[in-house]
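pls design
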C-alpha cells in the first residue's frame, strides 16, 4: 500500500466518525441551543446587529486603524475573518455539495448557516470575554482559552478543559495545513492551470505525474504567502481589508449578471433546492432516508467549510479587535456567516443551477467540467469570449483562496502560541508556508477530504465548550440588551479578568465601544 493510499484509508475512517451523526448533531444542536438561549437574536434583533455591523462602516472607531500593538479595527477583524472563510468553499465547495448531494444540499447549507450565525456569535462573545494579553503585549483569544478558563473552572472539569484546549490547538494547526493551506492552494492551481494554460510547462511531468506548471504555481503562491504572513497580523489585516470587499462585490456582481440573464431558470432552481432537500433526485443514491442524510451531510460539511461557524477559528482574529463589548464583536460574527453563506454561497449555487452546466434531474455535468471547474464553466456560458468567464472565476478563486491561506496562518500561529509561547510563533509560520507547495501536488479529492477531517476534529472540542458555556453567553447577551437596547443602568459584563473588566468599563464610559 502506497503512502497516499494509507493516508486516504486512515482519513476516511476518521472523517466518517467526525462527520457522522455525532458531529452533525453536535453542530446543528449547538446552533439551535445558542439560538434559543439568545432568544433568536439573529432575527429578533436583526435591525440592531445590522446597524452595528455593515451599517457602521463609515464610523472611525469601526474602520480606523489603531496604533495599539497587535490590535486591529473591527472592520479589519471582519475582513481577516472573511478572508479565511470566503475561500474555495464558496466556489468549489458549493459545487461539490451540489454534485454529490443535489440541489437540496443548498437548503441544508442555509439551515446550517442560520443556526451557525448564533454559534459564531457565541464563539466571538466568549473569545472577547476570555481574551488576555500575551508575552508580546498583544491580545490572544480563542476556544483554547474559554475551554481552559471557562469550562475548566466548572466543578470536576479542570483537566477536561485543559485537555480539550490542547486538542483544539493541535487540530487547529492541522486544519491550518488542510483548509488553510493545501486545500486552498490545490483549487488555486487547478483553476489557474485550466484557465491560463501554458502548454510548454503543463506538458512536462515531474514528481510522479504532477505537471511542472502546477509546481511553479505552487512556488509562486508560497512566496507570496511568506511575504505577507511573516509580517504578522497587522500586515495580514491590511491586505485583507483591501482585497476582501473588492473580491466579494465583484464576484456577487458577476453572479447576479448570470442569474439575471438566466432569469427563467430562477424559480425552477429555487424549487429544486427546497424540494430536493427532502426528496433528493435518484442520482444522489440510496434510500430516501440515506439520500436526505447525504444531502444534509454535504450541506453541513460544505457550509462549515465555507463559513467556519462551529470551528472556533475566526474567534482567534476577532479577539484582536479593539472592541470592548463582547456582544459587539459577536454581532460581526453573525454578519460574517450571513455574508459568507447567505450571500456568496447562494450566488454560487444559483449560478450553477440556472446556467445549465448542472442537470438537476440526473446530476450530469456539462462536457469537460468537474466540480472544481463547474463555476468557471457556468460563467463561460455568459462570458464566453476568449474563455473570460473561466478566467474571471480562476482569478476570483485565487483571491478567495489566497486570502484564506493568510487568515489561517494567523489561526494556526495562535494555536502554536498557546502550546509553545508567543516568542516561537515564527517557527509555525515558516512550517505553514512550506506546506503550501503540497497543495499543488496532492490530488483534489484527497486535499479536500483531509481538510474536512481536520475541520471536524477541530469542531468537536470547540462545540463542547460553547454548549457548556451557553449560560454565560445568555448572561452576557442579556446584560448587553438591558444596557444598550433597553437603557437600563446596570454594570457591564465584559471580561473574566477583573483588571481587563475595569479597563474596558472605563473605556466604554469614556465613549469607546
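designed seq:
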Amino acid at each position: 500500500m502506497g503512502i497516499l493510499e494509507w493516508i486516504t484509508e486512515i482519513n476516511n475512517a476518521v472523517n466518517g466518525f467526525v462527520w457522522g451523526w455525532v458531529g452533525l448533531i453536535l453542530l446543528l444542536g449547538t446552533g439551535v441551543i445558542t439560538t434559543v438561549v439568545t432568544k433568536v437574536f439573529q432575527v429578533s434583533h436583526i435591525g440592531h446587529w445590522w446597524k452595528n455591523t455593515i451599517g457602521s462602516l463609515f464610523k472611525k472607531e469601526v474602520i480606523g486603524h489603531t496604533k495599539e500593538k497587535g490590535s486591529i479595527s473591527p472592520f479589519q477583524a471582519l475582513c481577516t475573518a472573511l478572508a479565511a472563510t470566503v475561500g474555495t468553499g464558496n466556489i468549489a465547495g458549493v459545487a461539490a455539495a451540489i454534485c454529490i448531494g443535489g440541489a437540496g444540499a443548498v437548503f441544508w447549507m442555509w439551515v446550517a448557516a442560520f443556526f451557525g450565525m448564533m454559534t459564531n456569535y457565541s464563539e466571538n462573545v466568549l473569545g472577547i470575554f476570555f481574551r488576555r494579553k500575551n508575552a508580546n503585549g498583544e491580545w490572544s483569544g480563542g476556544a483554547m482559552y474559554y475551554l481552559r478558563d471557562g469550562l475548566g473552572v466548572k466543578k470536576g472539569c479542570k483537566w477536561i478543559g485543559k485537555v480539550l484546549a490542547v486538542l483544539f490547538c493541535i487540530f487547529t494547526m492541522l486544519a491550518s495545513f488542510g483548509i488553510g493551506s493545501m486545500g486552498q492552494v490545490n483549487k488555486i492551481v487547478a483553476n489557474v492551470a485550466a484557465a491560463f494554460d501554458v502548454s510548454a510547462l503543463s506538458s512536462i511531468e515531474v514528481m510522479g505525474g504532477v505537471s511542472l506548471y502546477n509546481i511553479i504555481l505552487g512556488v509562486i503562491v508560497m512566496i507570496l504567502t511568506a511575504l505577507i504572513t511573516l509580517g504578522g497580523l497587522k500586515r495580514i489585516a491590511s491586505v485583507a481589508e483591501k482585497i476582501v470587499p473588492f473580491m466579494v462585490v465583484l464576484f456577487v456582481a458577476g453572479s447576479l449578471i448570470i442569474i439575471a440573464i438566466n432569469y427563467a431558470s430562477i424559480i425552477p432552481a429555487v424549487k429544486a433546492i427546497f424540494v430536493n432537500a427532502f426528496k433528493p433526485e435518484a442520482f444522489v443514491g440510496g434510500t430516501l432516508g440515506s439520500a436526505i442524510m447525504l444531502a444534509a451531510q454535504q450541506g453541513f460539511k460544505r457550509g462549515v467549510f465555507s463559513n467556519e461557524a462551529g470551528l472556533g477559528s475566526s474567534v482567534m482574529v476577532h479577539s484582536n479587535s479593539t472592541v470592548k463589548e463582547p456582544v459587539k464583536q459577536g454581532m460581526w460574527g453573525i454578519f460574517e456567516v450571513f455574508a459568507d453563506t447567505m450571500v456568496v454561497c447562494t450566488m454560487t449555487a444559483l449560478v450553477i443551477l440556472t446556467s445549465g452546466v448542472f442537470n438537476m434531474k440526473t446530476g450530469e455535468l456539462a462536457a469537460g467540467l468537474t466540480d472544481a471547474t463547474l463555476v468557471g464553466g457556468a460563467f463561460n456560458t455568459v462570458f464566453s469570449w476568449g474563455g473570460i468567464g473561466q478566467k474571471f472565476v480562476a482569478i476570483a478563486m485565487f483571491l478567495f483562496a489566497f486570502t484564506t491561506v493568510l487568515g489561517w496562518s494567523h489561526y494556526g500561529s495562535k494555536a502554536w502560541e498557546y502550546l509553545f509561547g508567543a516568542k516561537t510563533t515564527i517557527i509555525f509560520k515558516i512550517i505553514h508556508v512550506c506546506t503550501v507547495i503540497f497543495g499543488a501536488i496532492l490530488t483534489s479529492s484527497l486535499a479536500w477530504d483531509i481538510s474536512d477531517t481536520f475541520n471536524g476534529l477541530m469542531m468537536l472540542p470547540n462545540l463542547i465548550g460553547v454548549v457548556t458555556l451557553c449560560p454565560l453567553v445568555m448572561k452576557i447577551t442579556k446584560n448587553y440588551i438591558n444596557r444598550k437596547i433597553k437603557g437600563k443602568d446596570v454594570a457591564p459584563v465584559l471580561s473574566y479578568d477583573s483588571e481587563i473588566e475595569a479597563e474596558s468599563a472605563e473605556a466604554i464610559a469614556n465613549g469607546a465601544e
